[in-house]
Amino acid sequence: MSNVCLFTFVDLYSKGLGTLDHLLTKGAEFAAAKGVSEADMLQWRLIDDMNPLAFQAMVVINFAQQWPARAAGLPVPEGIADNLDLAGFKAAIAEAKAWLAGLKGEQFEGRDAAPITFNLGQFEPTLPAGQWLTGFSTTNFYFHLSMAYAIMRNRGVQIGKPDLFAGGL
Q1: pLDDT tens for residues 29-81?
Q2: Which of 14, 15, 95, 128 has a CB 3.0–4.6 Å from the CB of 167, allowing a cystine?
Q3: Cβ contact 167:141 at 8 Å
Q4: Among 78, 90, 94, 88, which residue's Cα sits nearest to residue 14?
């Protein structure tokens, strides 16, 4: 694996958090117009055996903070739960963006090959920080952000591809 500038992922995750905030706002406006509570909206699912919107938001927010912290060798922020209300998720997004804004490029310098061991349930691999951040974390970050988008589209929220870039390009 070639080295990448791990610090660039801080901005990428911050923009994704902005997109999540935008999607939650659009979803809440749609739900309110349809007489659906915010609590019920956060339980929307794409399909019955998939996790609800609240879970998708939780993973996006947690990954946006925890994996850059691991890659930089910093203390890992405590994760949020998936049982927050809409205001709680929006506050967590703001807090995550503020935390990311405090990171500096120097914290990531020379960390590409730093070994990180992480428990994935059935196994606990040790991989270089760069591989965790570029492969595992970013893939999961965008998967769950895309699931939040798909859940809302499936429910009829009027969003399109430009809404995926609401956090910035």
Answers
A1: 999 999 999 999 999 999 999 999 999 999 999 999 999 999 999 999 999 99
A2: 15
A3: no
A4: 94
For 89-146, the pLDDT digits (tens) are 999 999 999 999 999 999 999 999 999 999 999 999 999 999 999 999 999 999 999 9
Structural domains in the chain plus CATH codes:
8-165 (1.20.120.450)
pLDDT of residue 4: 74
Cβ atoms of 19 and 165 closer than 8 Å: yes
Q: Which residues contact 83 (CB under 8 A, 6 or more apart)?
A: 54
**CB contact set of 67 (below 8 Å; sequence gap of 6+):** 9, 132, 133, 136, 137, 141
Residue type, 74: L
Whether residue 27 contacts residue 90, with contact meaning beta carbons closer than 8 Å, is answered with no
Beta carbons of 3 and 130 less than 8 angstroms apart? yes
Measured CA to CA, the distance from residue 100 to residue 15 in angstroms comes to 11
Residues for the chain: how many in total? Answer: 169
Q: Supply the pTM of this predicted model.
A: 0.95
